[in-house]
Amino acid sequence: QYQLVESGGGLVQSGGSLRLSCAASGFTFEYYAIGWFRQVPGKEREGISCVGSDETTAYADSVKGRFTVSKDNAKTTMYLQMDSLKPEDTGVYYCAAAVRPRASGTDICRSTHDYNMDYWGKGTQVTVSS
Q: Can you give the three-state secondary structure of 24-58, one letter per residue?
């Protein structure tokens, strides 16, 4: 059975850093495009950092230059390095994976609905205090 398990969330002060991890199991991780998505109460889920099947990366404008997404196929784990955190980065962060031939990072970050991606993690809370 597949699993995506996020870790690394927590409470951090504005300007600080966090590194989220998402460990994958139960499927052939290297064949999957991956993404990190953020959900804030009252707002739609947003794709913030993604790696496409073509290995291109994409970032939401709000996190460009501050967040870095990476994928380690050997460890079947994806990461999200978050630096210079701001209070508006607060939310629940989800990792997701999908087999999407020829999909770019931008395509993956647009895939915000449950049915767009094959697998989703349960989410980890990130809270940035001012």
A: EECCCHHHCEEEEEEECCCCCCEEEEEECCCCCEE
List the alpha helices (DSSP H) in the chain: 105-109
Distances (CA, A) of 102 to 52, 72, 87: 8, 19, 35
Q: Rounded to an integer, what distance in angstroms lies between the CA atom of residue 61 and that of residue 5?
A: 26
**116 Ramachandran zone, left/alpha/beta (phi>0; psi -120 to 50):** alpha
Tens digits of residue pLDDT in 61-96? 999 999 999 999 999 999 999 999 999 999 999 999
Give tens-digit pLDDT for 49-64.
Answer: 999 999 999 999 999 9
